[in-house]
Amino acid sequence: MRSPVRTGALRGLPPSTPAPLQAGTKGLRDCAPRRLPVPPSSGFHSTSPECSEALATTAKLPEAEPVPPVPPRERFTIADIKERRAKAGRLVAPTAAYCDADMFKGPTTGKPKAKRWDHHLTTESALRAPCKLKQAAKHLKTPGLISLGGGLPCPEYFPISSLTLHIPTPPDFSETATLAAGEDAPIGKYDASFPSLEGSEYDLSIALNYGQATGSAQMTRFVTEHVELIGAPPYADWGVCLTIGSTGALEQILRMVCDGVGRKDSLLTEEFSFSTALETAAPLGVNVVGVKMDGEGLVPGVMDRILTGWDERERGGRRKPHVLYTVPSGQNPTGATQSVERRRAIYEVARRHDVLVVEDEPYYYLQMQEPGTEAPGSVEEFLEGLVPTYLSMDVDGRVVRMDSFSKVVVPGSRMGWITASAQLVERFIRHAEVANQGPSGFSQVILHKLLDERWGHEGYLRWLMNLRMEYTKRRDIMAAACEDFLPREVVSWKPPQAGMFQWLKVNHELHPYASTKGILDIEEEIFNSCISKGVLVARGSWFRAQQDIPPSGLYFRATFAAATPENMREAIRRLGEAIRESYQL
Amino acid sequence: MRSPVRTGALRGLPPSTPAPLQAGTKGLRDCAPRRLPVPPSSGFHSTSPECSEALATTAKLPEAEPVPPVPPRERFTIADIKERRAKAGRLVAPTAAYCDADMFKGPTTGKPKAKRWDHHLTTESALRAPCKLKQAAKHLKTPGLISLGGGLPCPEYFPISSLTLHIPTPPDFSETATLAAGEDAPIGKYDASFPSLEGSEYDLSIALNYGQATGSAQMTRFVTEHVELIGAPPYADWGVCLTIGSTGALEQILRMVCDGVGRKDSLLTEEFSFSTALETAAPLGVNVVGVKMDGEGLVPGVMDRILTGWDERERGGRRKPHVLYTVPSGQNPTGATQSVERRRAIYEVARRHDVLVVEDEPYYYLQMQEPGTEAPGSVEEFLEGLVPTYLSMDVDGRVVRMDSFSKVVVPGSRMGWITASAQLVERFIRHAEVANQGPSGFSQVILHKLLDERWGHEGYLRWLMNLRMEYTKRRDIMAAACEDFLPREVVSWKPPQAGMFQWLKVNHELHPYASTKGILDIEEEIFNSCISKGVLVARGSWFRAQQDIPPSGLYFRATFAAATPENMREAIRRLGEAIRESYQL
């Protein structure tokens, strides 16, 4: 067995903790993380007495079941992966070829297997049988076999003979540089049949036909390796499955483990959560339970108290929650980023209460550069500086991580992937077979050409490094606009460490009509005033996890992802004007 | 109001029936359909006494509720659509623009509205609320508005500056002609911002960003017009929504109208049905009820009798079925095609029993040319020759039609659309918002460039005309191979009139071990023998709608879509050999 290089090993452990060496662990070393100091509670999140108390320390958690330490994050390097590919030789994966992550993973010898989650599966998920026609594809490996099986059209009838991308050449990713000096990347219909000519392992004849619901072997290899570069799970039997973005993935995951009607399941999430996620859960009858947040996001002590004190009778017969949905980095809408200590604490609460963790990380790579700090010079430094993922600390296999190309390549790809234990991935695939049959072949072959074949892992990571600097600039422009145009006497905010969103708290109590006008009424008044002044912001109430309890404050979410710098300033100026008018300032 | 040209008006009515003129109907004329004579019952489908009796005539249907006549099919022409587009001017539909079919439809003045289906919706579907963030997009129309609303990335960060297709130029669609004389079709990032230069109404900056779950306005216009060319519904308020192919659409439709657990809903379908459709229904607890078939597919008299005699107590508390799933043309797996008379009869049974009809038509355009008949010379003749759709006779709005680009352009597009009443389309969109957010932008912009901008409706219909002739050739090659290599003494078959599949009946009773070996055992023996001889066929039992009743016969499905002519012959030879060996012939 080859020994993977393990980096960032002692991250998050107290200085006195000895390194928890595992079987087969070699080359353990401590790399000082290039991370930001954990900010104090920002003061713009609600801080009820319950919350403040819970915040104080995670040592207050009940100690009934001791939680073993989370092992160090483990990462392979780009050199490891290059070597592995060279050894494996050319990837031959024709139309609808079966694949899984194990075909592309590095060694996992000596690692334990993930726990089983049968008791969490819904009846719907447990009932899923493999797709008979997809299963029949296993016979296609038989040498000389002629298939009259699946109704796969002949690629002769695909009316596109080639598709040529014009793309940036690293390291200059700008639009102007791409126009002047980018490269053409053609994708032919039968490239993979002519390895000597083009060398490509994927082509239109494969990508544009039916495939397995997992996604193509070509893209599966790429995302498997990418997961290993960021930090693979510490158990052996993890897998991946391509998704129709995290939107589609979340719906599939909820149907897999949450039965809102029969079992009266609930879902834990941040008190303010991505509105579309809430809209996904609601029609399934899944009861959403919001957990208080502070400047670092969800507060683990509050989560623990909710679970410890859960009483089904008091909760209308609702079962104790067994699933947490969380956006750990640049949370939508609050922009909060959980530190590694926070993640560990939340993970430990999840272990104690047998809770699965759905880690939704569209903004993971949009972790910002702090003012006055030096940007990472190398890909390795960049990776070191990222907050470790839940996945990388998941000793049990209880995390389902959702990654997406939407925020970091293009939303229109409608493509992402999940990483989780083989058991959960298998159930997920069974659903994907009847829900979508995997992402668009156009999306797959285009992203493969760009990310795998042309850029490679190094180029893609450099793209992400470039992108986070762009978003850092945008965040700073918005922060300056807020400083310049918002009335500080009623509005408070903190520039986020990651993501696309600036969360703004407006002090409701200082409103001249606070005693007679509710929070939602004032929110609506300001929102409408904004529209008439020519700025669209998102209302904080759209993101309230529990619409059945009174709002805890008056908030707005503003994105710095889309508008030009000039427009961003003008928009914030208009927002400030709307607030001033409402508050009669 | 412009009067649409109505064609094929009297199709399917007895000669003595007067034309049922509707308000606003002008230019009614009878065009002799270029269709095939309805074949007699082919003899290879099961013909139980119940079935034979029901077959005799549809006049035996109970007459409790008189069913009004179905109005004539109505079609617009390509000239109508060109004129309409010219009047409307350039389509300006920027990022995430809201759209619906009404924006692109021809006049529907004087037509009734569809019926309401609230009583058929599931609780899940009824509970769906609009996506708050997508709804906010309506404000984007406000002139001068700056959006800090949705987290849409700036297209500056899309790492593809252009995408160039190489595509066939009609009328020669062959691969060799395309390589020699096809055309390049570039798609730039900002084409739509420079109308004077390129003239394109769609580009990468729009397609690769987030969009509405309906799909883009650009593709919505194309499919809306396409529906009108084939035959729009006879009610006013129909709509469309792009889908992740019919796979994804069916799952969404089932969740919209079938509650297998709470309401104990059932689904009617052909006795042999698409296995993936069955696998979609099963985990939802939806009970599938197979309806006997003959050479023209599902037998309406049997369907009527099942519904008339439905007894909830006898059926384990299962509610009387209110949804029919049918593949009317080139049915999968039997290859059967319902004649227009058959469709009318089934539709009337559906009306009588308040049944919604899910019309799954992936093979609709693969209707074959019969030997000795002349191929249509014009697009109009081609359209005339197609069997009318359920949609075109749907006076109530009870049909949900699923179309797909998978079989006629590329499966990898993972794109199709539904057409149905506005009420059902609206509920479907609400689900799409959280299930997928519409098809891949790559798929949309590429198919738009090809089908709409380069080929136009005329070119696309010519492509379909070409494709059906290709499939006709393939069907004939397989038919000849069957004649040459299959033992007629035990195997019977009839070349299909549409689709991709040859259905083969093997007479179980003639098997030397028929008295001791079950149908499924013999099927397995022959299947395994086929694999060892190097041919993969699909087992008939995979497609049995009801696995809980004994199999009615021994069948295999062979596709003529994929293999080369030589391989197809060799594969059928191997299949013949496997059958002969099992039957000791």
From TrEMBL, chains A, B:
Documented EC number(s): 2.6.1.57
Family of this protein: Belongs to the class-I pyridoxal-phosphate-dependent aminotransferase family.
InterPro entries: Aminotransferase_I/II_large (IPR004839), Class-I_PLP-dep_aminotransf (IPR050859), PyrdxlP-dep_Trfase (IPR015424), PyrdxlP-dep_Trfase_major (IPR015421)
GO CC terms, sorted: cytoplasm
Name of the molecule in the record: aromatic-amino-acid transaminase
Domain Aminotransferase class I/classII large, chain residue ranges per copy: 327-575
Region annotated Disordered, chain positions: 1-73
Catalysis performed (reactions): an aromatic L-alpha-amino acid + 2-oxoglutarate = an aromatic oxo-acid + L-glutamate
GO molecular function: 2-aminoadipate transaminase activity; aromatic-amino-acid transaminase activity; pyridoxal phosphate binding
SUPFAM superfamilies given in the database record: PLP-dependent transferases (SSF53383)
GO biological process: aromatic amino acid family catabolic process; lysine biosynthetic process via aminoadipic acid; tyrosine biosynthetic process
Compartments, as annotated in UniProt: Cytoplasm
Superkingdom as given in the UniProt entry: Eukaryota
